[in-house]
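Predicting holo structure, adenosine monophosphate bound.
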Amino acid sequence: MTFSSLGLSAPILKAIAEQGYDTPSPIQAEAIPVVLVGDDVMAAAQTGTGKTAGFTLPILQKLINGPKVKANHIRVLILTPTRELAAQVAASVETYSKHLSISSTVVFGGVKINPQMIKLRRGVDVLVATPGRLLDLYNQNAVKFNTVEVLVLDEADRMLDMGFMPDIRRILALLPKKRQNLMFSATFSGPIRTLAKSIVHQAVEISVAPPNATAATVKQWVCPVDKKRKPALLAKLIRANDWGQVLVFTRTKHGANRLTRDLESQGIIATAIHGNKSQGARTRALAEFKQGEVQVLVATDIAARGLDIHQLPHVVNFDLPNVAADYVHRIGRTGRAGADGEAVSLVCADEFAELVEIERLTQTLLTRETFAGFEPVHELPESRLDMRPPRKKKPNNSRKTQGERANSASKNGPRKASSKRAGNNAGNSSAKSSAKPKSKTGANHSERDSETKKKRPARRRKSFNGYGQSAGSGTANK
Ligand code: AMP
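Done. Tokens:
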């Protein structure tokens, strides 16, 4: 299949060709025709599968012949859970529309609202937004929703996890009833389906990426080590292997700061990205890392989803995540779009239970390799592959926001959306947020733009994962 056979016009095909894409990824091949005919879509696809182009390209195609947008109005609204993802999706929209006269912009919290208001003044065709800031702009009359033709809800599962439901419901109530709805989510758990029923109608279900699959192009391995020797081992691995660009995950913000200081003291240029950093610092850190000015980006799970760093070669799990599914998201930052990648986890004896859960979830026994001079004193027990499906964890309702509790208590019952194609579903997700003070939109922005702990067990499925690479087995060899 080629992009031209999908019915996209010349300026869009030119932009795609300039990106070097020659074949549509599976999500693109499936979604583009459906979006073009105007159907609602409910797609199970993670970042890394090409989903952004999957919805952006047909949307742009549909916008070409539409009416000119009026002042402060928008025609397409794309909602994303994090600022980083919003910026990334907006950059893609700009890239794919560069030979069209279609305007786009992005708005998110943590930065000044005035420049965003100015950009919206003349109206924009495509607006990418995080929910809290969008509502702030709406409340200040900077954006009007009555000409919205298409709504995209990106990473809907993440929206739920981060407690965005009250904001989403408020936004939905403000949109025109007649519109096309496209919903993307890594999983289609019960809560996501409930949300979907109040958004999409007669949706075509598309499923291309199993939530627990790791790309076969990612070489995964475990380096057993004692906890206190992890920083020294990481520095050693970076130097010995000459790793030029490494994304390192820690479990906590303090851990990320500590490790950054540690690496810097050893002459390695590192910077941290997490929810306690200002938006300016986060944007700067990411830009410097992408440009190669910073060798090591130390991140909490805020960066585990959504970030698309071109050909990121190395991901290190300095700590294993609490939730096994986050392992898949973390290592999904490498090996994207069929490229090779390497993911190493520094695992101490205390993390054995987490390692077992990850191996159970991915149905892969990760290869272990100790680094000479760093053999652990506290031995990491051998693991055996547990063939049972991953443990289900119940959503912890006690941690819901007031708004979410009100929502779940309301009689706002779901309508049944029928599907034309069968979609897989797997996984579970729980809505959570912290007890931090809320903004005037009812949103706890500082926390929801930052990392949240979540429990997301999921079932194993076999499927394909984007660009022809097989997924599900994730062979680990080093
Ligand atoms: P996404 O899943 O939308 O975050 O996209 C993941 C990466 O795949 C991005 O770097 C895109 O530029 C790239 N990409 C999207 N579509 C294609 C394609 N058809 N061929 C090759 N790369 C693609």
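Residues 83-96 form the longest helix (14 residues).
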